[in-house]
């Protein structure tokens, strides 16, 4: 009787051991699979950085009209992946995608941003593309292709574009929709080359497209330079359209479109001041007429509270047609004043006013002054 019992005991012990080993093996596999999934997620998220900015304003015009308006809200992702194991090589694939958000219905009475978020055929869309590009970077150099802020803006005009609600007219950035057609704003189908080392930045761009009978191998081109030293920044940029037409459609540029701008700023402790001067040929439009003009934009800011969270800012924007443009007394000019509280990093709540003195060709005021409040919440 002992032999069958021993055989049964051995078989039972073997089954238990197999069960334990299988359980341990299964746990190890689950652990490895979990670690693999976690590593995969961490690897992706470490290369992608999400961001966003909720921007809304509400206000009234001097004659009593009330409105709520978008102030360029957006969400996006930046991407960077190192191609070389050697960090010293600093060779990366880079990319960015950014979408504009239409959080309120479009309001033409109380407009808070001269930056026309809605591009061609995008007015009223809940979500639309602001930026989207891919490229590579190597040490001080980067090259990208897609839709991106222009060299004109990033190296010169952008340093004066600091008001939370108004401004920008004198910069010549958003002349046709979002400036994507002319190449001075968020340029469409653009190839950009950038160089940055210490305080020096250089850039060049070209747009390649087929939107008119005058399309060429390089349809627009631009270049710029920027230098920073001890709080002082100076920038210069130029942009020219090659494929412009005499009578352009809404998605076409004007023949002879050129834009030149120089800008300087200085920031120290609580104080910042910035000024730009632009020269434009066939770049701006009123009705169906394009005209030559000169633009000036001025910005000043002082952080007056002990914790540097409160600031007061003032300045003006001016765009005046050259003489001989047959526009009479037509011009665009307004003063800006704002008080804001910085409640989180670059997030603000603010009160702002745009005192508009723009004239039509008969020397009459053509725009109302605007008073408003708003929020800019960045995350």
Written description of the protein model:
The protein has two helices and 17 strands. Helices cover 13% and strands 49% of the residues. The longest helix is centred in the N-terminal third of the chain and has 44 residues, at 2-45. It starts with a helix and ends with a strand. The radius of gyration is 28 Å and the shape is globular. It has a 16-stranded antiparallel β-barrel. It is mostly beta strands. Mean pLDDT is 86; it is low at 1-5, 12-18, 20-27 and 117-121. The chain has helices at residues 2-45, 151-155; strands at 48-61, 66-70, 74-82, 91-101, 127-138, 141-149, 186-197, 200-207, 220-229, 232-241, 258-268, 271-286, 289-303, 310-321, 332-344, 347-356, 370-378.
List the helices and strands and how they pair.
Blueprint (H helix, E strand, L loop, with lengths): L1 H44 L2 E14 L4 E5 L3 E9 L8 E11 L25 E12 L2 E9 L1 H5 L30 E12 L2 E8 L12 E10 L2 E10 L16 E11 L2 E16 L2 E15 L6 E12 L10 E13 L2 E10 L13 E9 L1
Antiparallel strand pairs: 1-2, 1-3, 1-17, 3-4, 4-5, 5-6, 6-7, 7-8, 8-9, 9-10, 10-11, 11-12, 12-13, 13-14, 14-15, 15-16, 16-17
Structural class designation:
mainly beta
Report the biggest beta sheet as strand number plus sense, adding barrel if it closes: 16 strands, antiparallel, barrel
Distance between the termini: 78 Å
- How many β-strand stretches? 17
The helix/strand order is HEEEEEEHEEEEEEEEEEE
Summed up, the helix count is 2
Gyration radius, in Å: 28 Å
Tell me roughly what share of residues is in helical segments: 10-25%
Runs with pLDDT <50, length 5+?
A: 1-5, 12-18, 20-27, 117-121
Label the overall shape: globular
Mean of residue pLDDT values? 86
Beta strand %: over 45%
Order of strands side by side in the largest beta sheet? 1-3-4-5-6-7-8-9-10-11-12-13-14-15-16-17
